Amino acid sequence: MTTMPVVYEPSSLASIDTGFCADCVEFYPQVGTPNQRFVIGTYQLETPADNPQRLGRLIVCDLVPEWPDSAKYRIVQRQVLDTCAVFDIKWCYRPIDGRLVLGQAGADGHLRLYADCSDSDQQAVLREIAVTDSDITDGSVMCLSLDWSNRVFAGGGPEIVTSHSDGSVKVHSLGSAGLDVRESWAAHEFEAWIAAFDYWSPNVVYTGGDDARLRVWDRRANTGSPHCMATSKKHSAGVCSIQSNFHCQHLLATGSYDEHVLVWDTRNMRAPLGDWHVGGGVWRLKWHPSDPWQLLAAGMHNGFHIAKINVGFTIHSELGGSKVELEAGSACTISEMAAFMQHESLAYGVDWCQCPETPTESVQAGWLVGSCSFYDHIFHLWRA
Description:
- By secondary structure, the chain is mostly beta strands.
- It has one domain: Methylamine Dehydrogenase, Chain H.
- The chain is 0% helix and 56% strand.
- The chain has no helices and 32 strands.
- It is globular and about 50 Å long.
- The two termini are 23 Å apart.
């Protein structure tokens, strides 16, 4: 159930033209850069009759406050890195060998990893450090999404799950020799638009496909490939976005071309807890960096939206901290809080700035959000 409060409509604080069509954005996952830094991924289809190409760029930018008016910003480009067309980018939220690492899902079928080198003497901000083997794809199968396993638990080396246009899903590990495919299986009949780990139990993988199916896979099955624990048909069109809540165990959000966001208790996938009609189709979902209950959605033909997810929860005392857990059988209400409607094209890429502007800034002060739209190739910065 969704309640309908007065919805705040923020204005753009700064914008840039990204040149190529913009479809994804990720803010750096921690403080440590000179200013608030982010990466935009782009996708450009060039269609000469003899040789159509999918081109892309990674654009590294800083937000620079316009002092003395710190409410205004300049966006400064630090690096433009040519690559294949980019479908998805995501940071590993824990350093690998002391470096921040960004993953890229590309139209050439490959997963690429880039290390941040901004603290070194090199001019490059991002440097490619690994790519999947050339024999992993014949070039006709595109890599559509990726996710990292270690958002909640550090564990050993992180794993990366990718989804592909032939419906397959792969789990990769990063070793001294580069990227290795640990598991690969057919997950959907058509494009597997999205794959995501359960951050609280990384042996569980969620996938969504153009077949309008949401599936749950258990990688612990001793059958040679993961076991499908559940298939949901609650979405009526392609499932494009999935994210496990990294603050609250058992809480999951999924989005679809059917214009709805569904909120789930992962212990009971028979029916969702809540249904939020965003409108326009839902391409990406991002939980807030510090507030467990705020959810950011890219609504494709209907702008960008933020909602408050109201559920029951329990806090368990743990050694050295505490753990938040969704109450079994909890009721769920969803209240839309904000809508950014200044994009004039498909609302695709969106992300929260991953830390407040100052250590004392509260969630209520309104965190910064970056969003980008496709055909008009525009990035906007706004305050939630």
